[in-house]
Design a protein that fits this description.
The chain has 329 residues and is of the alpha/beta class. It has twelve helices and ten strands. α3 runs parallel beside α4.
């Protein structure tokens, strides 16, 4: 059976593949018409033809930092906080209350950070389920998965567990992520066994491969290894960020920035700061905080309205243009 394309956003930075029709079919069966309306709106928003009163997805950094020092990531070059910090419980409850009010359909845990460093990620998923969020993703390097945490995530209502691997061979994995690929793969197989024993299809497993010079010959073996095991396979092109150890891309002329993220999603960091997208290039575009301002107000703010207008009329901000030139488009 050949792999089928599930999604490729504008610009083609991510290609999402599956062998069996599970993601849309299972969530559609679980949530019915509301799920299919969400996916239709998501596709229209990506083309900047739909703007709802609330974001379609919240992307949350539920804690600061990451335990790895990957060469493609800007985090290692940033000053560490004196103590690793978590999104305050009161702020998360405030966000989930607003998600319930706005019927926000999707949530990602792991914006610019490693969410398994949080002390209670499974409880945050459960709160999101109670808030009525349908599509709940957790993006992780997977190295902090333990048996009890696997059980808790399977029980939590999480719909997608997304693990970044970026290699099919241990030496390349260690060069990229600094960990033990053999041990990580054992954890993933244990998770799949536990999910099968639970009798539930959730959470679906997505594995990701970011194409780099260090792994350029491993995409084929990676796909061969995970097809039939992972529910979704993600193949990504790198985006260059200042502070990463990747060489800057050669200069290129970008004629337009067809980004639809400010129509789709809103990011919130562990201290409540908001992003209009999921890119580090957008971290300083909005001078607002969700600690004091509601998500609906931020979503309809003049700052975001102006940002959307600049993208619509091909007058992108310097940050959006830099993101496009760095590989996003």
């Amino acid at each position: 059976m050949s792999l089928k394309l599930v999604h490729r956003p504008v610009g083609g930075q991510v290609t999402l593949l599956e062998e069996k029709d599970r993601y849309l079919t299972l969530l559609g069966a679980r949530f019915g018409r509301r799920f299919w309306e969400y996916r239709k709106r998501w596709a229209l928003a990506e083309e900047r033809r739909y703007l709802g009163p609330w974001p379609l997805s919240l992307d949350l950094a539920i804690n600061s930092g990451c335990q790895l020092r990957c060469p493609m990531c800007p985090l290692p070059a940033r000053p560490e906080a004196p103590k690793r910090q978590e999104l305050p419980d009161w702020l998360y409850r405030r966000l989930m209350d607003q998600a319930r009010e706005g019927a926000i359909p999707a949530l990602t845990l792991g914006l610019g950070s490693e969410p398994l460093l949080h002390s209670r990620p499974h409880l945050m998923v459960k709160e999101a389920v109670r808030a009525g969020i349908m599509d709940i993703r957790l993006g992780t390097n997977g190295l902090l998965l333990t048996e009890p945490l696997m059980d808790a995530l399977i029980d939590s209502g999480l719909t997608r567990l997304e693990i970044s691997l970026d290699a099919a061979e241990p030496v390349a994995y260690r060069a990229i992520r600094g960990g033990d690929l053999v041990e990580l793969e054992k954890k993933i197989h244990l998770f799949l066994n536990k999910r099968a024993q639970s009798g539930a299809p959730w959470p679906l497993l997505r594995v990701s491969f970011l194409k780099l010079e260090l792994n350029k010959n491993q995409l084929g073996p990676f796909i061969a290894r995970w097809r039939g095991l992972a529910d979704l396979i993600s193949i990504q092109k790198p985006i260059w960020f200042a502070g990463s150890k990747l060489p800057p891309p050669p200069p290129k002329t970008v004629l337009s920035v067809p980004c639809g993220q400010p129509w789709q999603r809103l990011g919130v960091t562990y201290d409540g700061h908001v992003w209009p997208c999921c890119s580090w290039y957008g971290e300083n575009l909005l001078a607002m905080t969700s600690q004091k301002t509601s998500l609906a107000t931020i979503w309809r703010s003049q700052s975001l309205t102006d940002l959307r207008a600049r993208l619509t009329f091909n007058r992108p901000t310097p940050e959006c243009l830099a993101c496009a030139q760095a590989g996003a488009f």
